[in-house]
Write a structure and sequence with these properties.
- The chain is of the alpha+beta class.
- It has two domains: 68 residues, no CATH class; 111 residues, no CATH class.
- It is built from six helices and four strands.
- The longest helix has 16 residues.
């Protein structure tokens, strides 16, 4: 009884319970629950909630859920910066997306094309950005990316558009025209 934590005046029943419980070691589950790699798949939504994951979809694959949870701490450390936006987009499967800051600010030097992507705002156009995706996404995924960007960006910065015209759909039989995919830009003004 030298390694017992019971006081000297403990009852025989308390000593017997202490000896009986010493034979059973508690399961070492707690360290595995807080790790997104080893956490059981059924507990991933609670781990995402505990780590304040900004965007969550139950339809994602387990690997994508684990990637989003693993990136959550890095996103929160840099929240409000372009690096956090890049980390969030990479977790959603868009690691090569381009972020164009000051997307509305153009100069009258002949370099900008009048193609509808810019408005003349002068110096007032600095708090804007546009995201150009290079991988095809569905319309639902585009709105999910929009919600994620709105949660990750600074509040004073305006997201102009999520442009995936660069991720053109090819006629190779991988995608069908069923309304899930679109070509071009998703209007970010729609809620």
């Amino acid at each position: 009884m030298t390694d017992s934590l019971l006081p000297a005046n403990s009852t025989p029943l308390e000593r017997a319970m202490s000896l009986a419980s010493a034979r059973f070691s508690p399961p070492r589950v707690l360290p595995t629950i807080w790790n997104p790699v080893t956490c059981p798949a059924a507990l991933l939504p609670w781990l995402a909630w505990a780590l304040a994951v900004d965007e969550w979809d139950y339809g994602w694959s387990v690997a994508k859920k684990r990637a989003v949870i693993a990136a959550a701490i890095a996103v929160h450390e840099k929240k409000g910066t372009p690096a956090a936006i890049r980390t969030s987009l990479a977790a959603l499967g868009q690691p090569d997306a381009d972020i164009i800051e000051r997307a509305d600010s153009i100069r009258r030097n002949g370099a900008a094309l009048r193609n509808g992507l810019h408005r003349r705002r002068g110096l007032g156009g600095w708090p804007t950005f546009r995201v150009v995706l290079h991988r095809p996404v569905t319309v639902d995924q585009a709105f999910q990316i929009k919600r994620l960007l709105n949660a990750t960006k600074r509040n004073c910065v305006e997201l102009l558009a999520i442009d995936f015209a660069q991720a053109a759909l090819r006629r190779n039989g991988l995608y069908t025209r069923n309304g899930a995919y679109t070509r071009g830009t998703v209007n970010t003004q729609i809620n």
